[in-house]
UniProtKB/TrEMBL annotation:
Designated name of the protein: Aspartate aminotransferase
Further facts: In eukaryotes there are cytoplasmic, mitochondrial and chloroplastic isozymes.
One GO term (biological process): aspartate biosynthetic process
EC code: 2.6.1.1
Co-factor requirement: pyridoxal 5'-phosphate
Lineage, uppermost ranks: Eukaryota, Fungi, Dikarya, Ascomycota, Pezizomycotina
Length: 408
């Protein structure tokens, strides 16, 4: 028999557990700052108007059916995804140095990259993967599943509530040659702290000197600054410097297609005479891995994203929708900081506006987080992270006062 009695009870996923606790709470004042999903000013999920439009167009298309996609996914989706992250005129695309597969959103792209590394990356060497401390918790689980060893590099300074740049650089300088460095393309989760462009240049320099291998996780392009190109700056800089690298791309946040699982994985080869051949060979192995994992990716979300990415008018409308989301979040950052400052809440609050993207690492302790939950029905993760999109003009006063009370 299976002897299922030896299977131990697993702990609940902390984030999804938090969501369940929020749902159970009957207080009319409750505030959900847990999950990283955009909410409008009425705390409701927002269907991007451009996505609604694409949905209507696709719904009326008599030529569509429910057949399988190719193993690598929808071709017009993967090529548009390359252009989006690397830039339409990227030499890497022109020189056919990019192998791309549609994946099960960003999680699937990180997983496919992890699996590919485990199978093919520098066999019989130290293949430690370095994550930022802290990082998106799923990075640990995904890389554990493929049995790659991992370590961390310092990232968040509790003192400044900004980047621990020195700590990060020193750890990179001391990492074994060939180590894999997982980097967040922009809008770092959970801290909201990104390196400046000068800091990225220094990171790239050290990684080149030490022969470290970059894996960019890009889950928030366009969502951080509202500008798709600005948010892709770090990735494009590394490509310009000639790095060979992996990229995981998610369309969950920037299209609001959370449940549709649209994402893309890219392997970018360094410039070399045989780079296009290398890319083809890599692509062929990725197809084998993809076939055994998911056979082929889900079609619907990719169709929506592809329609928008490939149509200039819809694309422009999408950019407008992105500015709506990122703009509302920035407004909430400014409002929260000024309310806490007005209340004279102990501590400094400039980090709320210095950090960018979906999240803010407030610096609230676990004890304060629990107090907020018990006294004020405010739900956030224990590490003090808040999803900025959970704040709106109706609850921000209430939240600021609750924080003030919990901190004193
Ligand atoms: N990577 C990071 C850093 C994230 O924050 C997320 C989502 O929260 C993802 C990847 C993947 O998300 P999804 O699988 O929903 O695209």
């Amino acid at each position: 028999s299976f002897q299922a009695d030896v299977v131990p009870q697993a702990p609940e996923d902390p984030l999804f557990g938090l969501m369940a606790a929020y749902r159970k709470d009957t207080s009319p004042n409750k505030v959900d700052l847990g999950i990283g999903a955009y909410r409008d000013n009425n705390a409701k999920p927002w269907i991007l108007p451009v996505v609604q439009k694409a949905d209507d167009i696709i719904g009326k298309d008599p030529n569509l059916n429910h057949e399988y996609l190719p193993i690598a996914g929808l071709p017009e989706f993967t090529t548009a995804s390359q252009k989006l992250i690397l830039g339409a005129d990227s030499p890497a695309i022109k020189e056919k140095r990019v192998a791309s597969l549609q994946t099960v959103s960003g999680t699937g792209a990180v997983h496919l990259g992890a699996l590919f590394l485990q199978r093919f990356y520098r066999p019989n060497t130290d293949r430690t993967v370095y994550f930022s401390a802290p990082t998106w918790p799923n990075h640990n689980q995904i890389f554990s599943n493929v049995h790659l060893p991992y370590a961390t590099y310092p990232y968040f300074s509790t003192k400044t509530r900004g980047l621990d740049f020195e700590g990060m650089i020193n750890t990179l300088k001391n990492a074994a040659e060939g180590s894999i460095i997982l980097l967040h393309g922009c809008a770092h989760n959970p801290t909201g702290v990104d390196p400046t462009q000068d800091q990225w240049k220094e990171i790239a320099k050290v990684m080149q000197e030490k022969k470290l291998f970059p894996f960019f996780d890009c889950a928030y392009q366009g969502f951080a600054s509202g500008d798709l190109n600005k948010d892709a700056w770090a990735v494009r800089y590394f490509v310009e410097q000639g790095f060979e690298m992996l990229i995981a791309q998610s369309y969950a946040k920037n299209f609001g297609l959370y449940g549709e699982r649209a994402g893309c994985f890219h392997f970018v080869t360094s410039p070399a005479p045989d780079a296009a051949n290398t890319s083809t060979r890599v692509g062929s192995q990725l197809l084998i891995l993809q076939r055994s994992e998911i056979s082929n990716p889900p079609a619907y979300g990719a169709r929506i994203a592809s329609l928008i990415l490939n149509d200039p008018a819809l694309f422009a409308e999408w950019e407008e929708n992105l500015r709506t989301m990122s703009g509302r979040i920035i407004t909430m950052r400014n409002a929260l900081r000024s309310k806490l400052e007005e209340l004279g809440t102990p501590g400094t609050w400039n980090h709320i506006t210095d950090q960018i993207g979906m999240f803010s690492f407030t610096g609230l302790t676990e004890k304060q987080v629990m107090k907020l939950r018990e006294d004020s029905h405010v739900y956030m993760t224990k590490n003090g992270r808040i999803s900025m999109a959970g704040l709106n003009t109706h609850n921000i006063d209430y939240f600021a006062k609750a924080v003030d009370k919990a901190v004193r």
